[in-house]
Amino acid sequence: MNRSFFKISVVKEKLYSTCVIALSLFLFSCGGAKQVAPNPASIPVPVNVTEVHPERAAYYDQFPGTVTALMQVDIHPEVEGYVTGIFFKEGDHVTKGQKLYTIDDSKYQASYNSAQANVKVATSNLDQAQKDADRYTYLNEHDAVAKQIMDHALTTLQNAKDQVTAAKQDLIKAKTDLGYSIITAPFDGTIGISQVKAGNTVTVGQTVLNTISTNDPMAVDFVVNEKQIPRFVKLQQHKPAAADSVFTLALPDNSVYTSPGQISFIDRGVNPLTGSITVRLVFPNQSSVLRAGMSCTVRVRNNDTSKQLMIPSKAIVEQMGEYFVYVAKDTVLPAPEAKDGKAEQPKGPSLAALQRKVLLGQTVADRVIVKSGVKEGDKVIVDGVQKLHPGSLIVVGH
């Protein structure tokens, strides 16, 4: 038992010695080839810069707008009944007085015929009453008739006149109802999709038959802050030439509408809850591109001739809803520590990227106006910004 234990101990000691020797050789061989990875922060990032200079910029202030017809009405029936005819093609241009719908007129025709007959009866009664009154008036002048009979004759005559008047009013109403069974266009315009079909029953005050609206010219309504009222009042008083492009439209597909517009009116009052006011523009629409209810963007040319600081849009970095740029600035690198513990001499000047928060204005093509955050002469980094962080070393022109 003891002899076996002794043999196992010897084997363990030999194995341990072999591992120690192998580890020492490995460490010795690696010590001479030890390498230190370079610090990424010390490697300059290649960038391109542009120097900021003030320049004049023609740009547009933009407002969300809605296309509106200058005249638009819903067509309602004035009488009840079945729709017996539709006399237009949906989406067509219709003219004032053009027949659009007919409603079953049988009962209205009957009422009209009855009213005509009543007028004739009332007129005949009036003629008889007039003859009686004339006769009794003559007899009364010769004291040949009782006074009471004379009074009755005059009263009957007056009642007959009132009955004729009432009968004629009923005839007018019956004629009007009969006329309402034919529905015509109230003005020239474009008619929409019919809300009823032939055979449908329509009800006064409830049923909407269709909608008709003018389409040339068209209006565009948009809202501006009350602080801009003086500006738009001046634009309204200015009478631009036909080719003036102070007011233009960007359509939903981002194309610019071909014809410029003019101010039609500024609303009578400011909304006290929002501090805003509505402005209406008018645009020609011969091609029928503008449609009621269409959303668009109103572009109002800014006539400010003062110079603005502008930089390329690609230089802007957005972070959490705020905007920044990187500006190239000279800096001095700190001296690295020497191996013997003594400090080496500082290296020469180099460029670093400094981050600045900016307030942006209007975008003009591929450039943007900067209202604050940079100044004239600053060198703004325009290429390579994706690889930068505040304080990154940079090299220009590579």
Provide an overview of this structure.
- There is one protein chain.
- The N terminus is likely disordered.
- A hairpin with a 2-residue loop joins strand 20 and strand 21.
- This protein folds into four domains: 107 residues, conserved putative lor/sdh protein from methanococcus maripaludis s2 fold; 47 residues, no CATH class; 76 residues, Helix hairpin bin (Helix Hairpins), CATH 1.10.287; 90 residues, Elongation Factor Tu (Ef-tu), domain 3 (Beta Barrel).
- Helix 2 runs antiparallel to helix 3.
- With 398 residues, it is an alpha+beta fold.
- Strands 1, 2, 17, 18, 19, 20, 21, 22 and 23 form a nine-stranded mixed sheet that branches.
- The chain is built from four helices and 23 strands.
- The protein is rod-shaped.
- The chain is 27% helix and 33% strand.
Task: Summarize the entry for a quick read.
The protein starts with a helix and ends with a strand. The chain has helices at 2-31, 106-141, 147-180, 229-237, and strands spanning 45-51, 54-55, 60-69, 72-75, 81-86, 93-94, 99-103, 182-184, 189-191, 201-202, 210-213, 218-225, 247-250, 262-266, 276-283, 295-301, 308-312, 317-319, 322-332, 349-364, 367-372, 379-383, 393-396.
